[in-house]
Amino acid sequence: MSLNDEYFNVNDTLKIKKEWQDFKELCAQFEVELTEFLSHKKNKSAGIRARKKLVKMRNLGQKIGQNIMTKKNEYDSDYS
Fold first, then answer.
1. How far apart are CA 58 and CA 27, in angstroms?
2. Mean pLDDT score, 25-29
3. How far is the C-alpha of 75 from the C-alpha of 78, rounded, in Å?
């Protein structure tokens, strides 16, 4: 972990940065499954796995958005 990451996480009490890393990992996994589904193999189970990854990505994205809004409200209350 670099010094910039440590500095970035000083105010990250809701673990938004970690959730963002998890989201990017899910995106990479989704891309692998989608590529396999669209390949010449026509792997149906890869399509199912890709859709499951999309559901997880949507849920995690909503959670990240909620945490960002919560943190913004905390910042607003600090300066009121």
1. 11
2. 96
3. 5
